[in-house]
Design a protein that fits this description.
The protein is built from 19 helices and eleven strands. It is α/β, with parallel strands linked by helices.
Length: 495
Amino acid sequence: MRRGQALAPRVALVALAPLLLGAAATEASAPPGLQACRLRGVEHPAWCGTVRRPLDPARPAGPSIDVHVAVLPALSRQRKPDPVFFFAGGPGQSAIDLAGPVGRLLARLSNRRDLVLIDQRGTGRSAPLRCDGDDGADRPLREAVDAEAVQQALRRCRDALQRLPHGELRQFTTTIAVQDADAVRRALGAGRINLVGASYGTRVALEYLRQFPQAVRRVVLDGVAPPDMALPAAFAADAQAAFDALLAWCEADAECRRRHPQLRAQWQALRASLPRAVTLTHPLSGRDEVVTLTAGVLAGLVRAPLYAPALAAGLPVAIEQAAAGRWTPLAGLALALGGGRAGAVAQGQHFSVVCSEDAPRLDSDGAARPAGDFGALAETYVRACADWPRGVVPADFYRIGPAPVPVLLLSGAIDPVTPPRHGARVARALGARARHVVVPAAGHGLLALPCVRDQVFRFVDADDEAAALAADGGCPATRPRPPVFVAPGAAEAPR
C-alpha cells in the first residue's frame, strides 16, 4: 500500500502506560514519548509513535512488529478523557493515510476528544502486506482484468510476502489486530474509548467489543460488515440486489424510462455477448488497450459506481453506450471513486483476512456459491484462498451477543456492499442497546452525510446511555435517488 506523508521518527509507546493525552492541540510540542508529526490533509500537528507487538501472540518472545499509531489531539483544553478510535475499511486500508478525510468527518468529535488512528497490522506502515500494483502503478489493463493473470499476480505476491521478516500470513487476522488496538489503548493510558468503524472497520469494532467490553463506552458502525458475512458471497448477492434495484428504479422513474426504455434488454444483451474483445483506455497512461471482457470484469465495472448514488445515476447512459460499443463512459464511472493513495488497499492483508475469516464459510456445506450477474465476483477469492495461508479464528468470533454499551448502526438503503440486511441482523443480536438507522437512497459510507455526522456526534457526546440512543441528527425519512444523468448536449428523450 502506498504511503502517505512520512511520519516523524517512530517512538515505542509500550513504556507510556501512565501517559494521558491531555495537552492542547495548539501546543508546539507533543507529550513526552510521542513525536510531533504532520499528516497529509490535516491542518494541525498530530502525535505519532509505535507499539511493539509480537507477530504471533502465542510466541511473545518471537519476532515482533511495530504497529503505527497517530493521534489527532483534541483542540479544546477542556478535553474529554475517552478518545475516539477509528477503524478503517478494506480490509487493507491504512487509517493513518485517511487522517485528512477522517479528521474532517469527525471534526466535531475531535474538538474535545483525541482521535486515534491505527495502521492495522498488514496495512500502511504496520508490517505492510502490499502487492505490486496496490499503489495504482501504470501496468497493462490486461493484468488487472484477466482472471488468470490476476491469480498469477496474487501467487507471486503471496510468495514474496512470505519471505518478509513478518511474512507469517496467518498472523494478520482481525482477532489479533484487535489485541494490537487494545495494546495501543493501554499505552496511551486511556480507560474507556469510543469506537468508530467504517465498512470492514465495523467488523474490527465488533471484535474489539467482544474481546474488551470493559474498555468500550460507545460504538458507531458505519456500513455493517459482520464477522459471519462471508464477504465473497455477500459481495455478489448484495451487488446483484443493488443493481436490480437500479434497473427497477429506472423503469419506474419517468425521466430515466424515457431516456433509456431498453435498459434491461441492453444489459442482458451485453451479458450474452461475453466474453468479447473490447478497447479500453488506460486511466493513467491514456493508451487504448484491447482486453477480453468477461462476466466478472463487466460485473466489477458496474458494481463500483453503485457505491455512490450520484455515480450510479450515470450507469443507465453508460450501459447504453457500452451496448453501442463505446466503453469509455462505463470504465470512467468504475474508476471515478478511485480511492487514490489514501484509499488504497494492501492486497496481502486483504486476502489474509478474507481467506482466514470468510473463505471457510464459503467452503461449508451450508454456503451456496453465488450466481447471477455478479456471481463471478467471488471466483477470485475462491481461487486465491484455496492455497492462501489461513489464520486460526476462534468460534466466538462469529457470534454477536447482547451489547453492554450503546451501539449506533448506520446503513444506506441502496448500499451494494453493506446493505441494511446486515445491520438489521446485527442490531437484533446486539439487543436493547443497539439502534439501527437506515438512510433512504444512500449508498456506502454514511458519515459523508451532515445529518448522520450530527447524529454520531450527539450519540458519542451524550452523557448517559438513554440520551445517546435517543440522539437524532434529523436525517429525512424519505430521500429520492439522484436524477438520471443526462450528458451535456444530449438529445431530448422521446416523449
